[in-house]
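Take a sample.
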Amino acid sequence: MDTFSLVLIAFALSMDSFAVSVANGLTIKKLNLKKILIIASALAFFQALMPLLGWLLGIGVNDYIKEFDHWIAFVLLSFIGGKMIYEGLTKNENEKETELKILTLFSQSIATSIDALAVGISFACLNLSIATPVAIIGIVTFGVSLMGLYLGKFFGKKLGKSVEVIGGIVLIGIGLKILVEHLFFS
């Protein structure tokens, strides 16, 4: 597979990470460079790790994973999004110092990278080497996540109190998109 195709695959896989990054940028009040780098690195790490794991699992597991990967992503993102909406509606502006907890970041990273597991299995089916795709997917996701975080941070300052509700709606929307795509279009 040529590099251009791998970059396109990486961009396609990173779109969920982009949307989650925008939501995080909207909702985390004190989003500094260190937090931005941690979030983008976590999303990129899992986005790169999943194809490697998929590739290692190989052909035999592909059908099993396809049966429930969309449900896992949907449940995780909907839970996190619902929690954000609840907190956004119940807190007043002075209380809101939304921080991204490690478990939430881990859940977001897993939920946005499950599709990459299946891509890794397809790489194994095509007898492709995995090192280059993993590197490209990780680098692209890192860059896309950085852009999403900065966009969310910029618009978060403009939107004020409603950002947590908007971020929650975005996460639920991503989960719903993943579910609908897998149930009706795959």
Summary: The radius of gyration is 17 Å. Residues 41 and 179 are 25 Å apart (CA to CA).
